[in-house]
Amino acid sequence: MWEWIVLLLVVGLVLVIVEVFLPSGLFGVAGALCLVVAITMTYSDYGVAAGTWLLGGVIMAILVGLVLWIKFFPKTPTGRRMMLDQTSGNIEPERDFEALLQKRGVARSHLRPSGIAEIEGRRVDVVSEGGMIPPDTNIQVVAVDGTRIVVRRV
Question: What stretches in the chain show pLDDT beneath 50?
Answer without folding.
Answer: none
